Each structure stands twice: as C-alpha cells, then as structure tokens.
Fold each of these.
Amino acid sequence: MRNIGADVTVVRGDVCHMDDVIQTVSACNKTGYAIGGVIQAAMRIDADLFHRMSSEAWHSVIQPKVTGSWNLHKALEVYDATLDFFLMTSSVSGSVGSAAESNYCAANAFLDGFARWRRAQNKTAVSVGLGMIEEVGFLHENPEIEAMQLRKGIQPLNESEFLQIIDLAIAESMSERNNATCYDLTKPHILTGMEPMGIREGFEGYSSGVGEFAATDPRMAIIAAAMTAHGATESAKPHAKDLEHLAANIPWLKNVNLHAMASLISKIDAPSLEIGALALIRERFALMLLTVPDEIDNHRLLIDFGVDSMLGAEFRTWLWNAFRVDISFLNILSSGQTLATLARKVAENLAVKG
C-alpha cells in the first residue's frame, strides 16, 4: 500500500475492546486527515453443533462482529455526518444458515440487520454477504469446506471479483450519502455467491446436493412455487426420458422412481442399489455436519454424531426429496440407526415401490 502512495499506520488492538477502538480512531485523527470510512472485517470461526457448543465458543465468534461493530458505531458517532462508508463483511451463511455454525450465522445475521438499522437513521452502512473467496483467505486454506459450500450451490469469487464487490459497495454508500435525504433500506445488504441454476435444480428435485437446501427451506417457499410452476412444462419430459435411457443398462437402477433415479445416476458404478444409496446418503450427511465423507463411519450410530431434532428433520426432508422414501422422524433418531441401516431401508422401500 505504501508503494502506491498510501500512508499506513498499524494500531494493534482488539475491536471487541472499546479502549482499543478509541485508540485507533485517535491515531487516525493524528494523521491530520478526515476519517472517510471504516471496513469492519473482524471474524472468528469455531464450528460445532449447537447442542454441543460451549458458551465460550459461542461468544468468541459472536463478539468480533456484534461487539466489534457496535464499538465502531459508537466510536465514530461524531463522524457520521461526513463518513463516506461503514462497510461490514458479512457472510451468505447469515441468510441461508449452516448446521454446525449457528454462532457464525447469528453474528452475520446481526451485521445484515445492523446495516439496515444504521440506514434507517440516515447513517451510511452496508453489509456485504460474501460466499467463498477461492484464491485467498480462510476457505482457500480449507479446501474441504470449500467443496461442501460448492455442493450447497454457493459459488466462489476470485480475488479480483471480491475487490470489485467491495468497490461497488463503497461507491453505492457514497452515492446514497451524497444524493439521498433518506437512505433506501433495500440497499444496505449485498448478497453474493448464490448460483441460480443450482437453486433451480434443487427445486426441480434433480440434485442431491447443489441447491437442495433451497428446495427445503421454508424461507424460499414463494420463489420455489414460482420456479416450480415455470418448470412444469413439456420440456421436463425429455429429461425424464434421458434418465430412463441412461438407467436402462443398470439393473438395480432401472426400476426405481424418477426422483431416486435422478439422485442415484451419479452412483451408477455402485454394484447395488443399497451401496449406491449409502454413498449418496453418506455424502449428504457429511455435508450437513460440515465434514468430508471419508470422515463418516457408515456403521456409527447417528446419535453419536450429535444428530438432534433439527438435523433429523432436515435429513428426513432430504431423504424424501432425493428418493421419495418416507423414513419416520423417530426412526432416524432411534438408538440403533446408522447410515448403513438407513441405506438398507431406503433400498428396500425403492425395491418394493419402485
């Protein structure tokens, strides 16, 4: 930054501590330049299922975004009239959720709401809900989590696209401040990384991973109904025929229903219906737990993975969408249930009902 002519002053501190924030604002004032804006990018990750999450883990993730943003808001109150931007880096998880990151989801949801709250007071603010940044940062250093986000339909941004989005958010904030007497409350939240075609596949029932979360999320009910109605045309028939043609030479696949066939077509190398279903179920279960399939033991009891009522309900809905097989909620949460026994039940149901 200095090489391109910027004056850089580094102040060590913690945005969660008000004294450190005030010290940083004081350091800015000593430069002799007006404070033009702030970028709040503090974050921490400490993932676990909610019922196993410690209070310390919850607050350690919440505080950088919640307490940190509030401290910046209070410390910069006297500069609000001239502040060009107040940008907070949020996450797509604040909108779509994530089973093992309730603390992180809540923290980002706060940022999205906080940006609207500031705008309602005619103060500049924007919360940028980022998906994946594929060339730098946390997800770049954790490729297994990046792969899981891709399966959920969240698409990556490269570094150049990320910087363009930040530039757009800042420019939008400056335009609002200069030209509006009352801020537009539709603009303080910019959501990135959602892939429309993946979401459509989820609604149509032809995807076991990408976009499937949208098909089962009640918050997506209106758009789901619209997209389903739009897709209910004759154009869907060739797709069904293509699936049947592909499955014709796979004995264990050709007699199952169309939804199961569409889900299982990616497992055509499996030697049997049960093994193919198990592979697919294992992938989905790993996705729900934010881990990789290789870390999942097919014969370990589901309750030992920490499957609670929320995950059980989500898993049951997915089983129906993927296979059109209804496994009872109590069955999924029963003491003897494993992925292997679950796959056997699915295969038995498909074999009987087709």
Amino acid sequence: MSGPSSPLTLDARVASRVHPGLTIDATIRLGDEIGVLFGPSGAGKSTLLRLLAGLVRPDSGLVTLAGETLFDSARGVDVPLRRRRIGMIFQDDLLFPHLDVAGNVGFGLAGTIRADRERRVAEVAASCGIASLLGRHVETLSGGERQRVGLARALAPRPRLLLCDEPVSALDLPGRRTLLDRLRAVQRAEGMPVLYVTHSPSEAITLGTRLFLLDGGRLVAEGPPAEVLAGTRRAEFLHLEGVRNVFSGRVAGHGEGREWTRLDLDGGTSLIAAYVDAPPGAAVSVEVDGDDVLLAAGPVAGLSARNQVEGRVEAIAVHGREAEVVVMVGGLRWLVGTLASTPDVLALAPGRSVHLVIKARSVRVEYSLD
C-alpha cells in the first residue's frame, strides 16, 4: 500500500445509520492501488461507496483525499460531489441516450477549451479501447462496450479516486475480462486509488492488492485478498469454490490435423488448448479453473498434459484441508486450488519457483466480442 507521501491517498472514517438493521462504521486507507470491497449481500458495500463519493451524507466521520478534506462532521465540512473529483462506474452504465459515445465521454469536461476536451476524449478512448466507437450512438453498443464507455467517461475529468460498484456483474466472460484488463491498465497509467466492489473471490484476488471485508456494515478484516478470504471464519468465505483464472489472448497457430491450438496470453504466457476454430490473430478469452491446475516443484517428464508453465509463488492461503496458491507467471496472476499439505510437500514459499501443469482440455476458450 502507498505510504503517507503518496499524492493520491484516500483516508476515510465514516459512520452512518442506513436502516434499523444496518449501520455503516468503517475506516479505509487506500493509496495508488486497486482495493477490493468484499462481503455478503446487504453488508453495505454500495452504501459505503456512496458515502465516500458524497452521494449520501455520513452521520459522522472524516474523509480526506490527496490531503484535501472532503467531509468532516466535527468542522461542518461537506464538499459537494461535483467538486470532489471522484469518478464512479456502476452495474448499470447510466449512459446518456441522447449523446453519442464522444458526447458521453466528454460530458464531464464541459467548460474546457474545445481542443483540450477533444484531446482528452481521444486519450481516454484509446486507453479504454473505444477509439473506434466515438461516433456511435450508445444504443448500438454491446454491454461490454457500454461499460468501457462508462469507464472512459469516469476517467475523462482526471478523477483523484475511482469507485466501481460491480461493473462487470452483468457482462459475459469476454466482456468481463476486457473491462478488468482496461481497468487495471488505466489504474497504473493514471496512478490513482481504485475501490472496487465484487462478490467474486477470484476477481478479488486477481484484481486487487488489498481487500476490505465488510460484514454487517463493519470492516472485519483487511489485507492481501487471498489471506483475508482464507482467514475469515464466516462459513461462506471458508473456501474459495469456483476459483477461475480468466485471461485475454490471441490465437497464435494450430497443430497439424486440427488437434490443438496455441494461444498467446496478454502477459507473455503461451498455452496449448484443444483445437479452436479461429484464425491466427483472433482475440479470445481464456478460462482455466483453479482446481484444474496441478503444481510441481520442477518440470515433469512423461505427462500427457500439454502445458508446463514456470512461475513464482506470490502468496499461499491455507484454510482447513484446502489451500490456494497465488502464482505469478510473467505479468499474469494465477490461482491454484490444492490440498493444505501441498505447499509443505513441494517446499513452496513466496518467491520460490513452481511449475503449473495444465491439460489442453482444461483450457476453455471463448471468442472476444471485440
């Protein structure tokens, strides 16, 4: 996490009675990174985002961003939403139907010089992968395209904080992967804190560097996502069922007889999958279940599995009889589900080398919409 000297740091302590059964009472500190707000339905995640944004006034607390006080109940400070320079994207993209894509992206730049506005619209459109859509009417866009337009609109006024309320929950696999890739890229480019709400454990672990676990309106745990989710004693978080690895990539080529296809993932890794009827260069989304990945201390000879990929252990989360191992391969973060004894058997530890063993038929491929 960024230290006190980070130019864009969110420091917030808010309390607010939402209804008789829910009171928000949370403290969050976030630097130029992606923080994940995680918790069961009704925990108050969306309400907390609205309190931070200024859409809802807290009963008490203090919110500062980049050293500026946005809310202070003790001193009567409550900066209006329009002056807070906070961007937001939601499940519903909330695009303006009477404006084209360029008009939507540039909406928050009203009052700026036209040339500057057009330059910024072009810049964020390129970052979000929508440069070719600027002249389109929003009703002609796919769900994934609409959400990327929403992201570009939120980024255009150069916000100091981006709040994301489950923006990919209604998208298909390619749409989710594309938006998350763009979000990660623009966060690095803009160097601002991002607070992201999700119900997906695998999304939380692969996207975020810090997880805030909210339960009944209160933060009950905070830290690296895999460790927080594995350490909680709430039954629904005791194990990460259905952990998936989802990446973007392109078809690199095919084997003789249409038996297999080589895929180049965005991040430097190549995988062999069962034959995909797509030409070389076609954009795809690639999914591998964490439970379908085997771990080995080194290369293994005599296996039918077509993929053996070397990486480095980033984190290990053991809980009961199970464990999740987070492995960095190039620029990609993989999640592997295994037995609790496996890290000891293989002498795994953060920073140690490990090989991922993946069968070709465990690599599922979907065509990208873009």
Amino acid sequence: MRHHKAMRLASTNLISMNVSPRKATASDDRWAAVQTRDRRADGSFVYGVHSTKIYCRPSCPARRPRQSGVSFFPDARRALDAGYRACRRCQPDVHRSSDKDQAIAAVCEAIDRGDAEPFALTALANRLGFSSGYLTRAFKTVVGMTPKQYASMRRIERFKERMQSGGSVTSALYDSGFGSASRLYENGAAYLGMSPAAYRRGGDGATVFFTIVRTAIGHMLVARTKAGVCSVKLGASDAALQQDLKSEFRAAAIRRDDGRPAEIVRAILAHLQSSAPLPDLPKDVVATAFQRKVWKALAAIPYGGTRTYGEIARSIGLPSAGRAVAQACASNRLAIIVPCHRAVPRSGGAGGYRWGSQRKKLLLKLERQRTKP
C-alpha cells in the first residue's frame, strides 16, 4: 500500500513538474484577482488548491484558500493534467458562452452606435466584467477581427455613406469618426479597394460590365468586373437600376455588355425558376470576415426556407448578435446570390430588404411555391 501511494505521489509530482504550475505570491495580480473574486479574470487562468486537489475560477464563491496553498494554471486542461478536479460550485470546466456572446454583442452594438470613439476597449471590458485581453481574443474568434479592426471597418462604412451623398472628403472623414486624414488614408484602401480620394471620384479607373434582364420579381441588374460579380440589384426599371449602379462608381467606366455577365445571369435565373443550386461564382466585393460568415450561413438556408436573425446568429456561434447579423444582411450587394431575403425578424413578417419589402415577400412566396410537392 505504501509503495502504491508513493508511486501515485511521484506520478502527481512528475505531472505537476511538466505543466509547471506557479505558486501564489503577494505581488501576483492573479492572487489579487482570487482575493477579490474578480470575474474579469475568469478565462485567463485557474487556480488549484493543494489540500483538496480542486481547481477553481478566480471568481469562485467558495471560501478563499491560504496563499501558500495555491498554484496557478493557464487553463483547465493543465490543472487536470496535474491531478486536480473541477470545483462543483464555480464549474471552471464549463464554458460560459452566453456571458461571452452577450459581451461580444455589446461591443458590436457600442461600435455600431459610435459610442466608442475613440474606441476604449478597456473601459468597455471593465463595464462588462471581463479583462480587455480576454474580450479581444473572444471577439476575434467569433467575429473574425479585433474590436479595433471592426471599429475601423464601421468608420469606413460611415465614410462611404457620406461620400455617396456628395460630401467633401474632409467633412466626411470627421463626421465618420476619423481623428485625422492620415488615419483614413492608412485604413481606407483595405476596405474601399482604392484610396479615399479615388472612391470620392466615383471609382475612377475601374471598369464595370453590366446587363439587365426581366424576372418574375422585377428587373434584375447583374454587374461584374474582371475579377467577378460585383453587384446584383433588383428594381422596377432599367433606368433606376443603371442610376443606382452609377451612384456608387460615378467615374468608373460602366459599360452595358450582355455577353460578359451571361454565365452569372443564367445561373441566377435557373435558381429562381427551378430552385437549381447556385454554383460558387467568383465575387468581387469587399466584406469583413464577420459579414462573410453571415453570408455563408445565409447560403446554407434551404431554398424556400427562412431563418430569424437570432437563429442565424446562433448558427455562427454568436447567439446575442442578431442586430449585427441584420447589419451584415443589409450590407449585402449581391441579391439572390447571397440570399439575405431568407433572413426575417423574430416578431414575424418579411422584414426589411434593400430592394423593397414587397419584393422580398414575393420572392419568398415564389420559393415556397416551387418547393411544394
């Protein structure tokens, strides 16, 4: 018995040496977090209690152990490897996704509203009860970019809206939240595909080929560049669609060419008329990683079906981001190809649509009819 006990102790010590736990010291910020049960430190580390061989979250409500009887581990797996078991009260082995998701959604909403200009992640993280480092990592995992990058993207989108309304570059950049022109020119090309001045000139130097066809849901404009499809619009007339195309790229070489977009048109019409699956068409659109994630989820909705914004948010692992999902749907410029018409509000009805709510209702009705046996 003594031999086996000694072997178990030796094995435990060997495992502990491999994972290199660190004992608590008075100057260690982690010990301070344990003493104050700081919820913001949850997810950054766990601590193991030597006497009970139990590991806990920093915020565990159980009676605090002695400092000399505690070791820190970077994560639950390391604590388990060292022979500790999870606390039943704070459940450090359970991932609290709801808290994290709500925090990420709150960050998105704060940035969308323009409440965080200049973006102060630390203050926002403190208000939500997380460390800024943990919140940044979680945000990037789910959204596909850091909060700072997301804030830059949203400023660029506001800048584009002001440019399209005919404002000057100077007034648009300050109205959009940029502190200086240098900040705009540093980040603009990544999201606009050109310099801000070139975008202000309406896409000077770009060439866009388009065609317009009639469908059961109205006139449809399909435009492409050499790289791929850049726009699919729905409207009531050829003239209105052409004007809409020119409004964003006023100085681009826009040419009607029924031949170049023909392959894209045939694929879309086949999809509309017979529910034929759309091929993976080459696209020339600027979108964030989060927008592309939402668009991919939209493409997974079956023909004739719908999903609420909340259901789409849950499908991409961000249950509380329904509002951000709706924003991603609204930014879609490829009608039908990216089926944002299948995203609907939880309250009922068809909801909004860039190309008109009545057209959205008709499109959904036609899809449902074509899927009936």
